[in-house]
Every structure is written in C-alpha cells, then in structure tokens.
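Margin note from the TA: students keep mixing up input and output lines. Inputs are the sequences; the output is the structure of the whole complex. Example:
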Amino acid sequence: MASIEFVRVTKSFDKQEVIKDLDLKIEDGKFTVLVGPSGCGKTTLLRMIAGLDPQTSGSVLINGKDVSRIAPGQRGVAMVFQNYAIYPTMSVRENIEFGLKNNKVGKAERTELVESISRAVGLYDYLDRKPSTLSGGQRQRVALARAMVKKPSVFLMDEPLSNLDAKLRVQMRIELIELHKKLGTTFVYVTHDQVEAMSMADTIVLMNKGVIQQEAPPDRMYRQPSNCFTAQFIGVPPMNIAELGANGVKYGFRPESANLSAEPGDELFSLRGRIATREMLGSETIYQVRSGSGAFMIKCREDLFAVDQEAYVGVPADKLNFFGPDERRIEARDSSYRDYLEALRGQRHG
Amino acid sequence: MDKKRLGELFRPYLMIAPAMAGICLFVLYPIIFLGYLSLYDYNLMNKAKSKFIGFENFAEIFSRGDFYKSLSNTVIYTAGVVVLTLLLSLVIAVWLSKKSKFNVFVQAGIFTPHVVSIVSIALVWLWMMEPNLGFLNYVLKALGLPPSQWLQSSESALMSVILVSVWQGIGYYVLIIVAALQSISPSIYEAAALDNASKLKVFWKITLPMISPQLFFILVIMTIGSFKVFDTVKVMTGGGPNNATNTLVYYIFENRTTNIGYASATGVVLMMIIALLTFVYFRLLSRRVHYQ
C-alpha cells in the first residue's frame, strides 16, 4: 500500500509543456480515477507514476519516497494497459509468471501464486493456452492477473475497459470495485468515460489541458462542480448552462433538477419554451426545450410531452448553480449569490 | 438442366486453366525433363545416340571425389553465409530499429549493395582483393596486420567469396528485421519494464520470439539461395583455385556440355538436398517460431 504525490511536476514533449507545475496527492488505499477529455494529460500522469515517461521537472513520491531515479520495475507498481500488452509469444502461465521470475521468486512459490491468482480471475483452465486463443475479456483478465500476482503497492490502469463490449465493461466495472475492496491497495485508474469514473471512484481527479479542474468524491463532483468545465463534463446529459446577462455570470442546473409542466409553476426559475426533441429511454425521457435564452436538456421520469408542444421549465432555488466570469463556481455563502438569484427571478418566463 | 450442372462443374477448372498451363509448362515440365535427362547418357549432338542408363549417373555422382568436394564447399559456404548474415543483420537491425534520420541514412547505405548487380560487386571485390595492389591488403598492411592471399589461395578463397555474399545480402535482411522489430508494440516493452525484466531477458524472451517468423523465413530463404550460389563463384574464381570454391551449381555448369545427363543428375541431387534441408528446418524449428 502506498500514497502517491506529485510535487510541482512539469512534463514536456518536444519542448511543448503538457503539464505544468502540477501538485496532486493520491491517498493510500483509495480508488482514484483520473478522468478528462483525450489529450488532457491523464495518461501522462499515470505513466509518470509508473516511470515509463519520467517527468521533465519536479518529483513524484511513492509512499513519501522520491522515485524519480528508480526504474519502473522497482517502484512496486503494476499496470494494466489499454491494449493489455500481453506477451503474445508466451502462454498465459508464462505471462503471469514473467514478473515473478524476474524478481527471483522461487519455483514452488511461483507456481502456487500463479495458480491461486488464475483461479481468482477464472483463468485456471487456460493457463497453458496462448493469448491469441483467448477472448477479449479473458485477455483483460490475463493482464489483471499479471498485475495482481506481483502484489504491487499501487495498481495503475490505463483505460483497461475501453476495448471490451458494453455488457462486459459493466460487469468488469463491478469486478474491479470488488477487487479493490478485497486488495485494499491504491488504485489509480485513467479513463475518458465519466460514467466509469463516477461508478468506481473514491476520488475523481478531473483534468483538462494538463490542469486539474476538480478533485473530489463523485457525489460532490456532481452536486457542486467547481467550474463550468466540471459541470459540463460530468453527467449525461451535461449541466445546462446559460448566460445570466449580468457581469458575465452564468447560471446552470442539472437536467433532472428541472420540472417540466404545461402550466407555469412557482419555482424561482421558470421559463417558457417549446419541446424541440424527445428521447424516450425507458425509465426516463430526455427533452430538449428551446426558448429565447437557449436550449435546455430536461430529464423527466414521466413521458408526458410531445415534440412542438409548449411547456414550462421550473427549477427550485437550491438546485441552481452560478459561475462567475472566470467560470468558477459562486458558492451560496458568497455575498453576490443572493443578487444573482434575484436577477434570475426577474427573468421569469423569459 | 444437366448442361447447366456440367457447366458449373467445369467452370472452376476452366478458370484456373491458364495458370495451371503456366505452371505445367514452366515448373512441372522442366523438373520432369530434368529427371528424364538424369537417367540418360544424353548426347546433345545426336539425340539418337542417347542411351537410357537408369541410375548410373547417380552412382557415378556418389563415387566421384570432385562431387564431394563441391558439396562440402557448398555446405561450408551456406553455413558461413547464413550464420554470418543472420547474426550481423540482427545486430545491425537492433541498432537501427530506433527511428531517426541518421538510422534511415545508414539503413539506405547498407541496402545499396542489394540494388547493384552481383556481377559488378564481384568485379569490384575481385579488384579490391588483389593480393599485391588491392585495397584490402593495403588496409591490412596499414593496420600492421599480415596481408591475405584472398582469392588466390585455396585456404582463403572460399572465405573471401562468403565475405562478398554476406556484404551484398545483409542490407536486404536488415530491412526485413528492422520492419519486424518496429512492428512490436512499444507497450509490450513497457510491460516488460514494469515486470522488472533485464535488457538481455527482454531480448531473449520477448524480442527474439516476436521476430521469429521473420528470422525463420530468412533462414529458409537464405539456405536455399546459398545452396544455389553461382554468380559470385563464376565471376570471382571460376571454382578455383584447385576447386577450393567449386560449388554444386557451378559443378553442374561445368558438366553442362560434356555430360548433360550427369549434370542433370547432380541437379536432381541438389534439389533433394534442399528439399530435405527445408523439411528438417520446419520439423526442428516450427515449435520455436511464434506466428500470431
């Protein structure tokens, strides 16, 4: 088990800075998910922990110890790659065993470890098979077993589920959560899929363009996004955000926070619009409502409206978010918060 | 109805007929004719005087010392060329596998001899290997090393021919191995680094098995090619001195006019040897070659 710390880390590729002066602490034993759009630097961070692409400046600490000069194989970390990176010429057993052999683990112990791990991930019957004869899900398990068998203090995973089909992905998600619970080690997981992040993480680290946007548990990330980017990255559909029309301030609300009704309600924010599109998803229906101040996505439990129908969108005061001109969240305790609420009340039915 | 079915039955054969005609005419017929000739005391001037003699030609082959001499020369030549080329091209390819402008330049340089005609190359080397005025001895002397007789001594002649063949062929094989090395996913090496594998272990356990299909291909192709070596020998030594560089194909060539039946029989023997060797390769090495 180990904590990980980045101290003023900068990484450049060909003189172009991808990450600049980044500080981050990843807690011991937590399932931390690094999430963000592609090219945001999340994989770069992961590879720095592994030592595959060392930082240009600054230091990476594992368990308080600077590992900048320690080779990847000696950092006590294991990694699951996006394409699994299984050794194609070795059997499943040899794949799992390779790291142990290099670490000079005795034969008897090795065999025992390989067999117990392969039983745990359901690969026992496939130990003498070549990877090319396995399915995608089984290869994924080989990659996991190869990482687990080394008993690392940190598990690094680089979009490990992105090559699996949708059904298997959901199943593996649950298995990974259980695995983390069982092992209790530090997991660092990289994904661009916010659903994966929300479902598995203890802590989400949301990045964009090499900068950490917010670092919080999933519920806080969802309910109190610290800026417009977070608000619109997390959640499907993302948060509705529109200009308030005063001081460059924006207001926003989640699609499911709004009530859609035929008559104007008594909520603080109310808006008249026309249903532009309707997506019936079974348990819920998503409407796009167009009005003078823009288009809003509204998620309803009931399927009451049809396209081109006129409807009122109402949002209660406690579900509204405000973002300043710098796109940062304006907290409710802030003195200007009340003014913006009033400004929004003044725009009723806009 | 019946006519239609008949048409369907014959259509595929009709489709492949042109290709099959080509194969029959240019592959099967020459081989069969070679076998036919090998059983005759064939007279090129007067066909009527040709005489069927059964396996006498073969009996003669296996009782003549010069056949064994050229066979052993061929085996030594093949072993030398194959081993040296494989080892050197592997080493050079590993060195050149990183993509950089310098490496591309070097690779182009190494490949150039492959573009040049072997006859021109042999002539240039013949000149360089001249014992008194040649460039190679000049270099050796300059370095304070004893000069060599190169092609003019029966001790060093075969080695000299091997040297030229290796020099000419290496660029092509480097190209194949570099391509193989570059096709290995870098994440596999990263996984190995995280598995704490030493460089040597990575090479033996990952790199070599990953490029084994290409190495095996080179081994087979080069063995077959080397067994059939002719042009270098013809231009550089003419089989001499004292039969020191006489190889099987050159031996066949020497006998082509005086005794075509005997030459054909030797050709059949050569074909058998190559077939046997290829078969042995596949049996021995197929388990070590990892196709994906």
